[in-house]
Amino acid sequence: MPKRKRKPKNIPTSDVSNEDDIVLRETTPLQLRYYGDPVLRKRAEPVTEIAEAERQLAVQMLETLYATGNGIGLAATQVGVLRRLIIVDIGEEDDEEYEPLVLFNPEILSAEGEIVADEGCLSIPDVTAEVKRPEKIVVEGIDVQSKAVRIEANGLLARVLQHEVDHLNGVLFIDRISGLKRQLLKDELLRIQQAERPT
Ligand SMILES: [Zn+2]
Predict the structure, then answer these.
(1) Catalytic pick from 45, 49, 164, 188?
(2) For residue 53, which of 9, 14, 30, 85 sits 20 to 30 Å off, Cα-Cα?
(3) DSSP-based three-state secondary structure for 171
(4) Contact present, 108 and 90 (Cβ < 8 Å)
(5) C-alpha span between 2 and 68 (Å, rounded)
(6) What rounded mean pLDDT belongs to the chain?
(7) CATH of the domain at 101
């Protein structure tokens, strides 16, 4: 999910001295998949083991996110990998600095309230629409150190987590708007679907 303009940031990929941290190789950003690519409609499989390859994928996804310049979340599906992994980095929000989040097998345990806000998607460039979603959620998943984590989220964090979990189920934010509004976006969606991109 993209956000307003933000500064790109560097993430540590090597020379990590803290023994709890994981030493990772330098990587390059992955190729994003765009609206019209059938992979975006598929359901991702649970991750059964978090080994180096999985951690590496998470770092590559973070790099891919930062390379976009305005991304705040990405699901593995969006780089063509059908495994249940999402990464989120909303940076600073409401004067609070959030850490990047890597979540394997995320599950939304509960949701409450309802709020409408503008949403976009890195796989559907330059299209935004108002989407109604629960306001507060509780999400459980496994972090990059294989530890179970539970996150109580509201605001932008709750929204991006729901958006990325949707991707793992083959759901896009435009599925959550009215048919009439989607009709208005028809030309834009067709343009994205037919755009020529390097393979
Ligand atoms: Zn998206």
Answers:
(1) 164
(2) 9
(3) coil
(4) no
(5) 8
(6) 89
(7) 3.90.45.10
Whether residue 4 is contained in a domain is answered as: no
Tokens, residue 118? 């503008």
Asked whether residue 122 is assigned to any structural domain, the reply reads: yes
Q: Exposed/middle/buried for 194, CB within 10 Å: 0-12, 13-18, 19+?
A: exposed
| Helix, strand or coil, per DSSP, at residue 189 | helix
Would residue 130 show up in a list of annotated catalytic residues for this protein? Answer: no
pLDDT digits (tens, 9 = 90+) for 63-102: 999 999 999 999 999 999 999 999 999 988 778 788 899 9
Q: For residue 155, is it within any domain?
A: yes
CA distances (Å), origin 143, targets 35, 43, 55: 28, 21, 10
Domain extent at residue 113: 38-194
Q: How far apart are CA 157 and CA 171, in angstroms?
A: 18
Q: For residue 181, tell me if it sits in a domain.
A: yes
C-alpha of residue 163 to centroid of ligand 1, in Å: 6
Domain count, the chain: 1
Q: Which residues surround ligand 1, an ion (CB under 5 A)?
A: 121
Backbone angles phi, psi at 187, to 5 degrees: -65, -40
**What is the Å distance from ligand 1's center to 18 Cα?**
33
